[in-house]
Design a protein that fits this description.
By secondary structure, this protein is α+β, with helices and mostly antiparallel strands. A four-stranded mixed β-sheet has the order 32-33-11-34. It starts with a strand and ends with a strand. Mean pLDDT is 75; it is low at 1-91 and 110-225.
């Protein structure tokens, strides 16, 4: 029996061969069979770590002697069979059988010849994805796609010409791909399951580093399963000391810069919440050693700027937009590829705001609509850039600063809004050549010299003002309350909430001001206050963007109207926070007017009805804010899911109960 291979129209087809570098059996990208009108199209590709595609050219990295010798024994690694009606090229069944046997033998030899890790066969590396798209001239917006439970990574083309070139009327579809191998699906990628098979251990291919106990015990799928409702009821006076966890922004940066330094970076006071633990795991996958040595005490052994190695699997950031975007910047100028993904909430958040400016350094990426999963390939020859950061986002600015570290020359960034400057301060502490200067008319210019050599720096993480906001406002709205929150970060670009609350008449005092690790810290003392509504200056938004959910609760318990503007950024947080805040307050009986860039809240001091169940939209700050609201409302308030609180504030419930909060 003979199988005709080629398009129905009889056109002469172009020959495209690949330039590939084979590292292990996990380098199989696709083995593709497709039947169309009784014609068989046979397509085999070994394409991970693809460099370029050349017409009529094939080369193999000569450093891989085993692969080179096997190649000369009987075949190639990239094969496309084709024919035209004119010359009637055929391949018989025996030929197909022998070719398949050769590929199988090659695969087995590769498995047994390296390190014997047979699980490589169940792990698909995605490093060739963006380059494969470029080589086959696929539409950039389309990435690899597979159906559930298939180990194939199949290219989907948007160009009919390339579909015809492979003898298919529908391109490289996947409707007939199947396998009994169990794979999970993340977005449009089939993945091989959890990065770490055993919680508390380093990931495959990374150096060991214990992520155990409280640090790793809370990691969950966060895809809408295991929801845990929680209610808050009207409480008596809150009293005591509220030791909130370490600052999340600084914790992320400490791990990343520690991994980019050469040597050991000790970190104390690290926030051991899920978001930060995901960043720690990502650094391990890039080859850094990350070890927890005690409660909040961690050690990071870095690889140096540009020293990250190819990760063995996807980088799963759970719910962390900060961690994922900062890490994109940290690897964007290193010539490796990583796939970024997260939970259902994170996969809805826009990443183009970071990815598009990273392209200017030479990075490339693929991912449908700029949403996760994203395959990001770092620049092979990065360049420095001059760039205006047009969104008031410290995440975007910080990602670009981290990318600039490995780009020769001086990168200059400008921003009209003053956002958090933790990255700039920490870069200076690690020895980077970085400077910031105000611009005429507002904003600032930031410069950083590339090809940096970061030296380790001991980091003491202060307590998070964003987490402190919840017990702080609880004390202000619950009659008779008096609490102290020690060691809170008082960075001028993070205290917009304190300034606003004091404008509203809040009884807040700051004592024991001091410097720690280049940042000012102090103790906050808060007592119950009769709050009044104010117009919050829009320019203050960047300094308190994460605190608006709980500020809205304070406004609901203040007399008069509170106007908040400049909140466009809330639309692209863990949820559409502006939508979630407004709907939640309305459900509790508070009158709220929605504005295009904010909201107007009519307060009901001591008279918020409550009696509502709040949809949190998988947003930890929405959950915490409305639980605090329930402590001062006439009737209890329930949030539909409190499990997400662990992403930033694992001790929230225990801490609030210790102060006297009524949770049930």
């Amino acid at each position: 029996m003979k199988c005709r291979l080629g398009p129905a129209g009889g056109e002469t087809l172009s020959l495209v061969l690949g330039h590939a570098r084979i590292e292990n059996a996990g380098d199989v990208i696709a083995v593709f069979f497709h039947f169309l009108e009784k014609r068989l199209i046979f397509f085999v590709a070994f394409l991970v770590d693809l460099d370029i595609f050349d017409l009529l050219g094939f080369a193999l990295d000569d450093t891989h002697a085993r692969a080179l010798s096997l190649f000369f024994l009987g075949g190639g690694f990239f094969l496309v069979f084709f024919a035209s009606d004119d010359d009637g090229l055929f391949l018989d069944t025996l030929g197909l059988f022998l070719l398949g046997l050769f590929v199988l033998v090659l695969l087995v030899l590769r498995l047994l010849g390296d390190d014997g890790r047979t699980d490589d066969l169940h792990r698909l590396r995605l490093a060739g994805a963006p380059l494969l798209e470029q080589g086959l001239r696929l539409e950039r917006k389309l990435a690899f796609r597979t159906f559930d439970r298939t180990p194939l990574q199949v290219v989907e083309t948007g160009l009919a010409g390339w579909a015809n070139a492979l003898g298919s009327e529908i391109g490289l579809g996947q409707s007939h791909a199947s396998s009994s191998t169990g794979f999970q699906k993340a977005g449009s990628f089939a993945t091989s399951g959890p990065l770490c098979k055993e919680e508390g251990r380093g990931c495959a291919g990374s150096r060991p580093g214990p992520l155990s106990g409280e640090a790793a015990g809370g990691l969950q799928a966060m895809n809408g399963q295991d929801r845990r409702p929680l209610s808050a009821r009207k409480s008596g006076p809150l009293q005591g000391v509220a030791k909130v966890p370490g600052d999340k922004s600084i914790s992320h940066r400490a791990l990343i810069l520690g991994a980019l330094a050469v040597g050991e970076t000790p970190v104390s006071g690290l926030l051991e919440a899920e978001d930060v633990v995901h960043t720690a795991k990502a650094m391990m996958q890039f080859g850094a050693e990350v070890t927890r040595v005690g409660e909040g005490e961690w050690r990071v052994w870095g690889r140096g700027v540009g020293g990250f190695s190819q990760p063995d699997g996807e980088l799963d950031f759970g719910n962390s937009g900060t961690g994922s975007r900062l890490v994109m910047g940290a690897m964007a100028t290193t010539p490796i590829t990583a796939v970024f993904t997260g939970d259902a909430s994170l996969r809805k958040r826009p990443m183009k705001r970071v990815l598009e400016p990273l392209e200017k350094f030479g990075a490339t990426w693929s991912g449908e609509g700029g949403l996760m999963p994203i395959a990001l390939t770092g620049a092979d020859r990065p360049i420095c850039v001059d760039y205006e950061v047009t969104v008031a986002s410290a995440q975007v600015k910080s990602a670009l600063l981290l990318a600039a570290l490995n780009a020769p020359g001086r990168t200059r960034l400008t921003q009209s809004a003053l956002t958090r400057d933790h990255t700039e301060k920490m870069l200076a502490a690690f020895g980077a050549d970085v400077s910031a200067a105000p611009m005429v008319g507002g904003g600032e210019r930031i410069e950083v010299m590339g090809e940096a050599e970061l030296r380790p720096c001991a980091i003491q993480v202060p307590r998070d003002p964003s987490s402190a906001a919840f017990p702080l406002i609880a004390a202000l709205i619950v009659p008779g309350s008096d609490i102290t929150i020690p060691d809170v970060l008082l960075n001028p670009r993070r205290i917009g909430l304190i300034d606003t609350l004091q404008d509203m008449g809040a009884d807040i005092s700051v004592t024991n001001r001091r410097m720690s690790g280049g940042e000012e810290i102090g103790d906050l003392v808060a007592r119950h206050s009769n709050l009044r509504g104010v117009d919050v200056p829009p320019e203050r938004a960047p300094s308190m963007i994460d605190e608006y959910p709980i500020l809205a609760v304070a406004a609901a318990n203040a007399s008069g109207r509170t106007v908040m503007r400049g909140l466009e950024e809330l639309r692209v947080k863990e949820s559409d926070r502006l939508f979630a805040i407004i709907n939640g307050l309305r459900a509790c009986g508070v009158q709220v007017e929605e504005l295009e860039d904010g909201m107007v809240i009519d307060g009901r001091p001591g008279d918020v009805p409550g009696s509502a169940t709040i949809t949190t939209h998988m947003d930890h700050r929405i959950a915490m804010a409305f639980l605090i609201a329930g402590l001062a409302s006439r009737n209890s308030i329930t949030v539909d899911d409190a499990s997400m609180i662990a992403t930033s504030f694992p001790e929230f419930e225990e801490l609030m109960r210790s102060l006297g909060a009524g949770f049930a």
